[in-house]
Every structure is written in C-alpha cells, then in structure tokens.
Amino acid sequence: MKKLISILMVLSLLAGFCTLTASAKTTVFQGDRYYIDEIPDSDFEILGLLGDTDNTQTVNIKDATNIQKHLASLVELSQETQVLADTDLSGDITVRDATAIQKWIAELPIPTGDCIGIEVGREVVLLPYVPDIVGSWENTTDAADLINELIAAYSQDESTKEMIGEMVPGFEEFHLIPENIHIETFPITAVYTFSPEGTYEVIFDEAALTQTVDTLKEDLKGDTESFLKAYAKEKNLPLTPDQMVGLMGFESVDAIFDEMLPADLVREYLAPAEGTYRAENGRLYMDGAEDVYETYTVNDNTLTLTGTAGEIPEDIPADIISSMYPMVFTRVK
User: Which of 133, 184, 222, 274 could form a disulfide with 9 if both were Cys (CB 3.0 to 4.6 A apart)?
Assistant: First the structure.
C-alpha cells in the first residue's frame, strides 16, 4: 500500500530590508540570498562592491548612470550586476538606487531611518541558497476520509471486481462495500525534517501510529461483519459472518485482519523514510521527480502544502488526491 501522505518541503527566508540591513545585513534578490560585509568569510563568493555596476572595483557617477539607463531600457544589467545595483537593498532596481550612489559620492548625510546608501561600496558576498522549508515540521493528519474515498473508488475498480469475483464467484454486490465499511478515524503524526543539503527524513510517532492501527483493526472487524451480514441478507444465505469467511479459508473475521495488519506491518511503516528533495518558487519536488510536485507556502512557523500538480499517478483518482490538501505543518525546530 502506497504511503498516502508524502509530504515534504523547503525554506526561503525573506525579510524587510531597511531594518535587516542594520542587524543581519542580509538581502534577498530573485530567490538568492546575499550578505554584505567589509571582510567576508573566505569560503564565500564575492560578487563585487555594492553600487559597482560596471565591474571597475570602484563606485562612481558612471554606476548611477548605468542604473538610470537600465531603468530606461537602454541597457540590460545581468542578474549579478542587478544585485550590486540594488543599493537600498529593496529587492528591486529603482531610481532610489541611483540616488543612493549620488548621495554616497557627495558624502551627503543619510536621514535617520533611511537605509539608502548605507552599504554602498561594501563587498557583496553570495551565500548558498537555503530553501524556506529547511527545518523540522510536525503534522497530524486524519486520513479516514481519504481512506474511505479510496475504498469507494476501488470497490468499483475492475481489477478489484475481478479479484473478489475469484474469491466469491458470482459476487456483484459491490455497493455493499462502501455502504458498510467506513473508517471512523485514522490519525497519522509525523515529523518531516528537511536539510539544507537537499535530503529529508520522515519519522512517525510510534505510539500514536500503533494505537491508530489497533483502532483500525477493530473498526474493520466490525464493519466487515456488517458487510457480510448485509451480503447474506441480499443473497438470502443462512450463514454467519464467520461461516462465510470460513468458506474463503479463514478461521474468523478477526483472523482476516490479524493476518492483513500484523505487528510487523506497523514496524515497517514506522521505519524512518529518507530521500532527496528540491524546493523552489513554492514548488516541492521529491526524490528526483521533475514532472510532479507539491505547491506550498511558508508563513512564520507554519508550512502549508496547498496542492499538487504535474503527472498524477493514473491509479489514484485526481479528486482523491486534491482532497488531501491543504496540509498544515508546525515548525518544531
């Protein structure tokens, strides 16, 4: 059985730049993070001086002119040069950036609270991109509705009908399956951890999942007895549920689910899941997938998977997949 909830994500830290300049000295431009310092760590790549738009290692009036030409579409600055041209650390190239250079050259005072020009002439260093979902996130999802939808869908699937037809020749009462087998609750709690290196791990709450499976077994036993009684009534069969499952090779209804859901199965699903991910522009790609992804948002300490897109597996109805969303996670560290 496929794991119904494959959820993963990545973290992208954006902030207001005037206040940020005075503290962490970090800015974000077109999805990349940059650090500004007079003496950067040697491990980082130096892009150039803030305000140096022509790579002369100095900042002068020509750089302000280049910005004005860029805004007038007379020249097109490269992405890296646009980072250096963003002198007010706003994330956009505007006339304020040219003004900042002019003020810096003229050594004009900067009004209190105005971050224009404060960092002009200092080195800009490229930091590795850190996805915004990096960290650990906890989610508890009740998958009961999803399982019930799958039961209803697969009860009408031709391969399911063929399988049941082999076990019970002449069986045509497929409507009795979703009418009688209904899962009340199936909560799954897990912590998803995404590393900056692009790997992830999923760890399930062992005690909670064991209790969930035990409750599921009891629900299924009762529902299966109801299903068999309804079937016997429609077929006018003078048989008890245990007698009917006995004809299928089982000792009792309980024995069916003790065999279908053994303790080893729980331990198998409790095993940590590992893999790789890529997150960018609100899209989460898992385990090397390029044709299907999940969409997500990160807001403070909340991660929300909002949907999925791409080539959805044909064996799972699209409406069932869409019913899984939104999925909300809380940051745990």
Answer: 133
